[in-house]
Amino acid sequence: MAQIALPRDVASAVIVRGLAAAQRAIVIAVVVIVIVAVVEALTVRGAAAAIPPAVASLIVIAALALLLLVRPTAVTATAYIVLGSAASVVYVVALLTAGARLDEPGPYLVNRIATALGMVGALNGSARSGVAWSVAGFVAAEASLVIGFSIVGRPVDGGLSPLIVLVLAVVAYTALAAARSRLRRRIPDLDRLQWELELADRQRELERRAARVVHDTVLADLAIIASRPGELDEGARARLERDLAVAAEASVARTGQSEVVTPRAGIAHDLLELAGEYQWSGVTVDVSGWESLDVEVSSPVRDAVLGATRAALDNVVRHAGTDHAELVVGSRDGRLAVLVVDGGVGFAATGVEADRLGVRSSIAARIGDVGGAVRVWSGDEGTTVMLTVPVARSGSAVGGEPS
After folding, report:
1. Domain 192-394, architecture per CATH
2. Residues pairing with 327 in the sheet
3. Which of 316, 309, 262, 315 is nearest to 290 (CA)?
4. 38-65 mean pLDDT
5. Gyration radius from the chain CA atoms
6. Which residue has the higher pLDDT, 277 or 1?
7. Rounded alpha-carbon distances, angstroms, from residue 317 to 211, 306, 340
8. Domain residue ranges of the chain, discontinuous segments joined by +
């Protein structure tokens, strides 16, 4: 069954990732501008010696932001905060010891790297992670300012820029989280809808399988009993007991059928045994082609072929009005073919009532479920039902090939 997409979750994650990527891109763009401003300010004020460490620190934070933009992982985010904090300390010390008084009238240039630390952004499309990493970046930024000002023996004056960045980030990510929560309450739970659809599909499949079991066992046996005068022989009793056990004990639940081919006695042997069961029914079933049939089939294919063949032979017993049928088996081009042929009265396919399950459910649907096909020819000279299913391996010599 096709999976149902969850557009509300996808859209939310895309928006969160977009916001985080924008934050990191802004850091890179702002650092380029700050580099120009710092170089100019230090040159004008005669503090060119502070340019190399200050510019190097800015380049480090820009490189970390670029790395985080390309690979937004917990490792790169941690590196951004830790290494960025160290770069911030170097940057603050370089500017405050240059004698250029770049912290006056305010610490706008001094706290640029510290401000950038709060723009680490969200990871994995989660708004909550955006809040958490923003707080972590703000704490690291404040710590770097305290350490930098303390090293040069100046009162700490980090400014409000890191706090403003934190507030904006928290508000933005909180708004996205709240919007997603509202959508979850207003939009139907698509996960549950999908589960209910799958449950309904399984229920319909169970009902269809149950109908097959009843048709192939109880109804078929009752029809044959009603058409036979006198007492039943031992073979008839044995089949009735077996079919009643199947109807009473067999589960129709789907149990994760495996498509792995499992070696068995052979489908040819199984079909021969099946034909032998009809000796008590009043219809002789001749089998041809089984001696040279050398193919392997999976368990689901085997069950489908035997069940559909049994249903076709039951139809011969119940409806054909003949005492003879042929079962022809063979393989070609990776497909097993089984023909059930009788010389009975035949029928018109268009005249079959809608509630009759034999051909539609017990034969066609069963074979179709395993990738096979069914063809039926019927007329005054009798009826032929041909089943074809895929096989795992075909032997080199195949006898009795139907044409």
Report:
1. 2-Layer Sandwich (3.30)
2. 287, 340
3. 309
4. 89
5. 40
6. 277
7. 20, 16, 12
8. 7-186, 192-394
The one-letter amino acid code at 237 reads: R
Instruction: Output DSSP code: residue 228.
Output: S
Question: What average pLDDT does this structure show over 350-375?
Answer: 72
Phi, then psi, of 65 in degrees rounded to 5: -65, -40
> Among 37-46, 119-128, 185-194, 231-240, where is mean pLDDT lowest?
185-194
Closest CA to 101 of 34, 42, 24, 43: 42
The pTM of the whole model exceeds 0.90: no
The predicted-structure confidence for 63-97, as pLDDT tens digits, reads as follows 999 999 999 999 999 999 999 999 999 998 888 88
Please give the Cα distance from 270 to 305 (Å, whole number).
10
Report the first-to-last Cα separation within the chain, whole angstroms.
37
Predicted confidence (pLDDT) at residue 332 exceeds the cutoff of 90: no
Greatest Cα pair distance, the chain, in angstroms, is: 123
Residue 392 near residue 297 (C-beta atoms within 8 A): yes
Amino acid (1-letter code) at residue 294: D
Three-state secondary structure call for residue 94: helix
Distances in whole angstroms, Cα of residue 279 to Cα of each of 227, 273, 275, 282, 328 = 15, 11, 8, 6, 17
